[in-house]
Description:
This protein is of the alpha+beta class. It has helices at 11-22, 69-78, 107-117, 122-146, 150-169, 172-176, 182-189, 204-212, 227-238, 247-258, 266-274, 282-296, and strands at 4-7, 27-30, 42-45, 48-51, 84-86, 92-96, 99-103, 219-221, 242-243, 264-265, 306-309, 313-316. Helix 1 (11-22) packs parallel to helix 9, helix 4 runs antiparallel to helix 5 and helix 4 (122-146) packs across helix 8. The radius of gyration is 24 Å and the shape is globular. The two termini are 30 Å apart.
Amino acid sequence: MWDTIVMGSGIGGMTAATALARCGQRVLVLEQHTVAGGLTQTFQRNDWSFATGVHYVSGVDPAPGPNGQFGRMLHWLTDGALQFTSCGNPYDIVRFPGFEFGIEHPQAAFRKALEVRFPAQQAAIKAWFEQLDSASQSARSLLVMRGLPAWLAWGWRLWRGAEARRFSQCTLAEALMAIDDPQLRAVLGARWGDYGSPPQTAPLLEHALVTGAYDGGAYYPVGGPARFVQTMQPVIEQAGGEVRLTRTEYRLLSLLARHSGKVLTHRQLLKEVWGPNAIEQTHYLRVYMCQLRHKIEHDPAQPRYLLTETGVGYRLAAE
């Protein structure tokens, strides 16, 4: 029945499944979690929506050129349904006690702003960016090596491997020790939160690759990170594939179906699907009903089947 089965609906699994679907395969995506999308999923608390893992995205510049390669791939995968909007410029603002600094793109603009703010540190700024450029180039050389025949990769490793090893063994904190000005040091090291490793353990190689990725700007998906799954899943389904409903979604939908046309209260639904300890957790229903509507409604914003009875509960239309 299936040409390919993909285990996990994180962005890697969804991208692979969508690409296979675009090539005519019927793909089954199996996900053990209650929400598809991995770190692209969102959740709600009261009237607020939160993203779990997407801060901003690079590589989706709409202009022709290398800064838009990722965006062109996503456009192909989703038939143009996934859109991005610019985070502006500066795209990051780092704030410390007593001062703040906006990080602009491209790198030349960021560097110029640093030189204006720290005129006595121009030599240090020049050396810093040269070091980051060298680290990025060494990392790219390793990526090239992975695509070479084994005998050629061995020679490439002898030629360029030592440099990449040096930058991977040098931590961000160690590299920043060459900067005398504490404020400049704070600005240059501030964005380690983008990749999660503190300066004491983060390889300079990682810092260079991640911060350098935004030379073409930073972008955010229109509609939030959940749009990755919402735009990829229809492509999978149109090719005859499926993103299998989780057990919780299935129980909720089947309960409504057994009482089609009748209003089930929030407490009824929560008790039957999540158990008696969850009868006050009405946000569970908002999250799961939103997910189900995106899967079965033609227009989730104006549902025809999964209807809300304001202040009471939900019902499945009897048609």
